[in-house]
Specification:
Bound molecules: flavin-adenine dinucleotide
Structural class: alpha/beta
CATH topology of the largest domain: FAD/NAD(P)-binding domain
Radius of gyration: 22 Å
Helix content: 25-40%
Length: 397
């Protein structure tokens, strides 16, 4: 069966997909969004922490903010606490269900058409159009468009099939919502026995509820269950039998995020902060840049891979430094022992280093490369020298 034709078809109604749908529909293009879930924001596995910079850029109502973040407590493997506090709100925790719904509503208000329960099965670029095969509520249909945007999260099958490469490195994120007592600040836990290669977190979302989650190189669900057990035995949570959801987070980018009549944005392209696994803001920036390039390309009818390559140049110019510093920092961290992580806590705790870093202008919730460089510049003690050594060894490989 053959369906309608559009200027742009977007695959995936996550934050990146709905944002570009909004931008392109606002510019007068005919937009359709295909989403495999039955509605926006179902079964989400995400904490929803975004910077104030990101929240302002999304331009949404404050009703979706669950809490605001002004301080973070970092815990070392041995349980030592370092508190970072700023005068201003740096970030907020948004309700991801409401965020996804609000972005989809904004796009629909501009005329974008949404098809839910409609997984995209195949995409075939042609000379004059691009064909999209979907299974709309179980029935196969082919739609056509002048261009397609892949915003389908970290699901490598379609980009790989379209010859854009495959993101090979990833972390696994796991999260649960729990009933909690006395959790009123954002807490982050480090240690290779807690969350190998990454970290765990506790984030209050209301007076008696919190998200508990972690990122790990493998077995994230198992490590999260262990973490829940330990919080339960400390009396900090009321139940450890909770639903745990998990999802992969890309730690790398696609070789090519464009093709003939085709762009890739968000997690699908690897637009994710490697230090934290946060992808809402970088995916949003990717969507903005893609919207600008695609708007021009649709107006000039210049939709070849060569012409759309401008998108990759632009988003890489914006994010490359962050991504490369972040990959290094993540790789180095994965090689540290708990003793070395304790050593870093010692250094950060000494001589008011945390205050100096916070006040140095190098601290930003989203842009971590300057902070990583500042820590390395200031370090002279053993654990960080070890980091430098590892970095230079990696750089010379
Ligand atoms: C445990 C955990 C916690 C996290 N916490 C944070 C956080 O606090 N802050 C932050 O910034 N990031 C966080 N992230 C990452 C964040 O969730 C993602 O970066 C973000 O959702 C990416 O947005 P996206 O629009 O690119 O993709 P997604 O949100 O994954 O949306 C993709 C959409 O495409 C749909 N789809 C997939 N395939 C198809 C198909 N073939 N046809 C049709 N539809 C399809 C999916 O159903 C989905 O709705 C977290 C991730 C995890 C795992």
């Amino acid at each position: 069966m053959s369906g309608q034709s559009y200027d742009v078809i977007i695959v995936g109604a996550g934050p990146a997909g709905s944002y570009i749908a909004y931008e392109l529909a606002s510019s007068g293009h005919g937009v359709a969004v295909f989403e495999e879930k039955g509605a926006s924001g179902l079964n989400i596995c995400c904490t929803g922490i975004i910077s104030t910079e990101c929240f302002q850029s999304l331009d949404l109502g404050k009703d979706m903010i669950l809490t605001e973040v002004k301080s973070v407590k970092f815990y070392s493997p041995s349980g030592r606490c370092l508190k970072f506090q700023t005068d201003n709100v740096q970030a907020c925790v948004v309700d991801r269900l409401l965020l996804d719904k609000a972005l989809a509503s904004k796009a629909q208000a501009q005329g974008a058409q949404y098809f839910f329960s409609s997984p995209v099965i195949d995409i075939v670029p042609g000379k004059d159009s691009i064909q999209v095969e979907t299974s709309c509520s179980g029935a196969r249909e082919i739609f056509s468009a002048r261009a397609v945007v892949l915003a389908n999260g970290f699901t490598p099958k379609l980009p790989h099939k379209l010859g854009l490469g495959r993101i090979k490195r990833f972390l696994i994120g796991a999260q649960a919502e729990i009933e909690a007592k006395d959790i009123d600040e954002f807490e982050v836990y480090f240690g290779q026995g807690i969350a190998p290669g990454a970290f765990a977190w506790l984030v209050p979302i209301s007076a008696n509820k919190a998200y508990v989650g972690l990122l790990a190189t493998s077995q994230a669900k198992l490590y999260l269950q262990k973490f829940l057990d330990s919080l339960f035995s400390q009396g900090r949570i009321t139940s450890r039998d909770v639903e745990i959801r998990q999802r992969a987070v890309p730690i790398g980018t696609l070789t090519r995020s464009y093709g003939d009549r085709l762009l890739v944005i968000g997690d699908a392209a690897g637009q994710v902060k490697p230090t934290t696994g946060g992808g809402i803001y970088f995916g949003h920036l990717g969507a903005r840049i893609a919207a600008e390039v695609l708007d021009g390309a649709l107006s000039n009818d210049s939709l070849t891979a060569d012409q759309l390559s401008r998108y990759q140049k632009k988003w890489r110019a914006k994010m490359d430094r962050e991504l490369s510093h972040g990959y290094w920092a993540r790789w180095v961290y994965s090689k540290l022992s708990d003793r070395q992580i304790e050593g870093i806590f010692n250094i950060l705790n000494s001589d008011g280093m945390t205050e100096t870093l916070l006040n140095s202008g190098n601290f930003s919730f989203d842009w971590h490369s300057r902070l990583v460089s500042a820590i390395l510049r200031r370090s002279s003690a053993y654990p960080l020298l070890k980091i430098r050594h590892l970095i230079f060894r990696e750089a010379s490989l």
